[in-house]
Design goal:
- With about 300 residues, this protein is of the alpha/beta class.
- It has 3 domains: about 90 residues, Winged helix-like DNA-binding domain superfamily/Winged helix DNA-binding domain (Arc Repressor Mutant, subunit A, Orthogonal Bundle); about 90 residues, D-Maltodextrin-Binding Protein, domain 2, CATH 3.40.190.10; about 100 residues, D-Maltodextrin-Binding Protein, domain 2 (3-Layer(aba) Sandwich).
- Helices cover about 45% and strands about 25% of the residues.
- The strands form 4 sheets. It has a 5-stranded mixed β-sheet with strand order 4-3-5-15-6. A 5-stranded mixed β-sheet has the order 11-8-12-7-13.
- The longest helix is centred in the first third of the chain and has 29 residues.
């Protein structure tokens, strides 16, 4: 089929140039190859398309009719190329994004708002969920995730690093024993994200791994933050979820001299090659989005 379409284009070129030699020069093919392929095309359609003499060629009646359709095919090809060029110049279409709740309700919402100001023709379909979905199987174009992707078939580009902080409400800290060392955390109520059931803390050269009892677990950092604000216990949060809460005094740092391990933010997508203009624009936008740079700091 593809060779047949190429032969139709070659026939149109011969007809418009009026010469096998001119058509061969323009197509970058030997004259004998052009003549042979036109003969094969005539055999395929079962009719003579050209009358040949030693000096010139003329279209037969069938050739004239066939040329109309060949030109329509070439014009359709040009329209398709033009449509894709417009798409490259002005990205549009649907972009499906998935992201954990904590990032989705903060950084992603701010970033998408600015992205759509720059690319108003891109339609965003966003899923906010802490469930780790298969991008290819579920048809998502891109994900924001904490931690390097384990699937080696995916492209993961680190776009920032965020510290984490242990926090609790002032009321909780006032009504419970003072914490002077991470070993005492097991004696307190802790709201633990199911992905971080062990908290690794560092104070200078000293490290402490705190394995917590799974008395209150969640898959949602926003839930953990609200529980901590209501005095239900101590939790571990990324710093970008803390700014407003700390400013309002609803949460305070616990063991501030002990620093929890931070988390990396990755942009994840299925392929590095031939991405849609909408996805390519989104990747470039995310890599340079100032909101992420202000909330996440790059590793040195």
């Amino acid at each position: 089929m593809f060779r047949h379409l190429q032969d139709m284009a070659l026939f149109a070129l011969v007809a418009e140039r009026g010469s096998f030699t001119a058509a061969a020069n323009e197509a970058g093919l030997p004259k004998s190859s052009v003549s042979q392929r036109i003969s094969q095309l005539e055999q395929h359609v079962g009719l003579r398309l050209l009358n040949r003499t030693t000096r010139k060629i003329n279209l037969t009646f069938a050739g004239e009719r066939y040329l109309i359709h060949c030109r329509e095919m070439l014009e359709a090809s040009e329209r398709a190329d033009f449509a894709l060029q417009r798409l490259r110049d002005n990205p549009s279409g649907r972009l499906r994004i998935t992201c954990p709740a904590g990032i989705g309700a903060t950084l992603l919402a701010r970033m998408n708002a600015q992205f759509q100001q720059s690319y108003p023709d891109v339609v965003l379909e966003v899923s906010i969920s802490d469930d780790l979905v298969d991008l290819v199987e579920t048809g998502y174009d891109v994900a924001l995730r904490t931690g390097k992707p384990q699937d080696s078939s995916l492209i993961g580009r680190m776009i920032g690093h965020s510290p984490r902080v242990l926090v609790a409400s002032p009321d909780y800290l006032r009504t419970h024993p003072v914490i002077e060392h991470p070993s005492q955390l097991t004696e307190h109520h802790c709201i633990v994200h199911r992905a971080w059931n062990e908290w690794m803390l560092q104070n200078g050269d000293e490290f402490y791994r705190c394995v917590l009892p799974r008395l209150h677990t969640t898959d949602n950092l926003l839930y953990a933050r609200e529980c901590a604000m209501e005095g239900m216990g101590i939790t571990l949060l990324p710093s970008f979820l803390m700014d407003a809460s700390q400013a309002a005094g609803t949460l305070k740092s616990v063991l501030p001299e002990w620093k929890p391990q931070g988390n990396d933010l990755y942009l994840v997508y299925p392929s590095r090659k031939l991405n849609s203009p909408a996805l390519a624009s989104y990747i470039d936008f995310a890599m340079h989005f100032s909101g992420i740079k202000n909330s996440y700091r790059k590793h040195p």
